[in-house]
Amino acid sequence: xxxxxxxxxxxxxxxxxxxxxxxxxxxxxxxxxxxxxxxxxxxxxxxxxxxxxxxxxxxxxxxxxxxxxxxxxxxxxxxxxxxxxxxxxxxxxxxxxxxxxxxxxxxxxxxxxxxxxxxxxxxxxxxxxxxxxxxxxxxxxxxx
Length: 144
Prior knowledge:
The chain is mostly helical. It has one domain: 3-Layer(aba) Sandwich (Rossmann fold), CATH 3.40.50.300. The protein is built from 5 helices and 4 strands. The protein has helices at residues 8-16, 37-43, 59-70, 77-90, 111-123; strands at 29-30, 33-34, 44-47, 129-132. It has a two-stranded antiparallel sheet. Strands 3-4 form a two-stranded parallel ribbon. Helix 3 (59-70) crosses helix 4 and helix 3 runs parallel beside helix 5. The longest helix is centred in the middle third of the chain and has 14 residues, at 77-90. It comes from Triticum aestivum. This is ABCG4. Pfam families: ABC_tran. Residues 1-137 form the ABC transporter domain.
């Protein structure tokens, strides 16, 4: 946590291996071992500050797409679907499973629902660690 412009997003980008420009020096270790990006990318999730989703798909389709791309091949179809259902329940999106994502501020999901979808898209990959950049921005006190 820090003030605006302190570098919180930059730090998370570097830790998650998403920073491609600029000058980065030093070393990153995870539990005392040097971080290997190809391994770290498979075990981590990253919820960006902006909730970017395809407006033409449903909540369920967004989660299926993420799960199929990111879960290991040995996870069978039935287990993937079961896991998606558990995550939708966890983030309270089950009742909206068939809702179109839509465009922000125009139609579709509310800001709160978009935030929960962003988190769910990362959780269906079953990460060991998840980075969340301002997950409560744009939410009221109750939703946050």
